[in-house]
Design a protein that fits this description.
single chain, elongated, alpha/beta, two-stranded parallel ribbon, about 425 residues, TIM Barrel
Length: about 425
């Protein structure tokens, strides 16, 4: 099987200039995929153009942030204003996923499915799915899209699995330090890790989003284990859009970089610059080997003792620092220590001990409820040992931690990260690289 280089144009249907650029890049250049925004003004024109591009892989560019929804306000009160216009950006959707997960999940599922159905009714045969502003990387939304991907037989979902060190190795430009590219990279990679989903298609490159010139393709390293690579690109003929500015809701569509990215797609030599099977940098490769050994050779209970031991030592050391060095009262030291270390404990337990692939928000909430229970037990036990038994606060906390370790394991295994019974479908298996 030969490796495939996918040059995917996002925002198909968003404007006349974007549509024209996609047609030109397909006819005269190397474009072989595009993602359609079905709830944009020129989506129908985009589908008419797509019929003239028989080898174009057409996907759905799920839109939950800009312009008007498919279903309207009555069905999407959390997502839209009274006119049915989307009202939330990436950050707001992320917060809603934490504080209103059930309502958000229901509305995202309904709207995304409506967009899929609309695309199908318009004659689109969807091969992949991604999203505008990368909102599908938010864990709750990602899980919804995975379910719909399986339901409608969509082959591929975009995953942010780029190795920044490999991209930096072959690119001299440090623009990502000044235009937010590096911050975006770390956020999306963090969310990708939380999603715990593996894809055989590598993503290149979030570091230089919307600023991809030919210089970024002198040599593209694709890590060993990936079969394909997707390049997300945003071409346009901005002179066309300048003549129809009344249709433009985002000034980025008029950026000259859109023209430059179209020029990039006209260079037919670029696919030859992709090197598959490249080795990760030494420390990443070493970590991957250790991780493989960790999960394949070390049993769960021993993993718990090792991870729990690390978390316990770290928490205890931080408690001792607040108590002895900073000089805070023992109860205040305990409160601060808990709020600082609990999230670290949950994250490491979830991944390095139980390898959970469940709903991350629900699991974090359950794990937090466990730690809240343990916190009050800790306060009561510590107060008893210190005030009644007259034991030194440092020794008292050590005694409590000894007895709480077993209880923590039981509560996490059978409550926080309990695996659902029943067989898991092959298409649902998610294995971290």
């Amino acid at each position: 099987m030969s490796n495939k280089v996918i040059f995917n144009a996002d925002d198909f249907g968003i404007s006349l200039g974007v549509n024209a650029a996609i047609k030109k890049a397909y006819d005269e250049g190397i474009l072989n995929a595009a993602s359609l925004m079905v709830n944009q003004k020129y989506a129908l024109e985009a589908l008419k153009l797509a019929k003239k591009m028989p080898d174009l892989d057409l996907g759905l560019h799920v839109n939950l942030t800009n312009e008007y929804s498919t279903l309207g306000h009555s069905k999407l009160p959390l997502l839209t204003d009274q006119n049915g216009k989307f009202k939330n950006g990436f950050v707001k959707l992320l917060l809603l996923a934490v504080f209103k997960p059930k309502k958000l999940r229901a509305e995202v599922s309904a709207e995304t499915e409506a967009q899929i159905m609309k695309a199908k009714k318009m004659g689109a045969k969807l091969t992949h799915i991604d999203s505008h502003r990368h909102v599908h990387m938010i864990p709750l939304i990602f899980k919804v899209l995975l379910e719909l991907q399986e339901k409608y037989g969509i082959e591929r979902i975009r995953v942010m699995n780029e190795c920044a060190l490999m991209t930096m190795k072959t690119n001299k430009s440090k623009a990502y330090l000044f235009d937010g590219g590096l911050i975006k990279y770390f956020l999306l990679r963090f969310l990708a890790v939380l999603n715990g989903y593996s894809s055989k298609t590598y993503f290149y490159t979030i570091l230089y989003t919307c600023k991809l010139s030919k210089e970024h393709f002198k040599k593209v390293l694709i890590p060993d284990g990936f079969e394909n690579v997707e390049v997300m690109i945003h071409p346009s003929v901005t002179s066309i859009d300048q003549a129809h500015k009344e249709d433009i809701f985002d000034e980025n569509i008029l950026s000259d970089w859109r023209n430059k990215e179209l020029e990039t797609l006209m260079d037919k030599t670029l696919p030859a610059h992709f090197v598959f099977g490249a080795k990760y940098p030494f420390f990443i490769n070493l970590y991957l080997k250790i991780e493989k050994f960790w999960f394949s050779k070390i049993p769960e209970k021993l993993r718990f003792l090792l991870v729990g031991g690390f978390n316990t030592v770290f928490s205890y050391a931080f408690y001792a620092f607040l108590l002895e060095i900073v000089g805070l009262p023992y109860l205040l030291s305990l409160v601060i220590q808990w709020f600082v270390t609990v999230n670290l404990s949950i994250a490491t337990m979830r991944y390095y001990v139980f390898q959970s692939k469940g709903d991350i928000i629900a699991e974090f909430m359950k794990a937090w409820s466990v730690y809240i229970f343990l916190f009050f037990a800790n306060v009561a036990g510590l107060s008893f040992l210190i005030e009644i038994c007259k034991i030194n606060p440092l020794w008292a906390q050590g005694i409590y931690l000894t007895f709480s370790t077993i209880l923590t394991y039981i509560l996490h295994k059978y409550f926080s990260f309990r695996k659902n019974s029943g067989k898991t479908k092959e298409s649902d298996k998610q294995i971290m690289n």
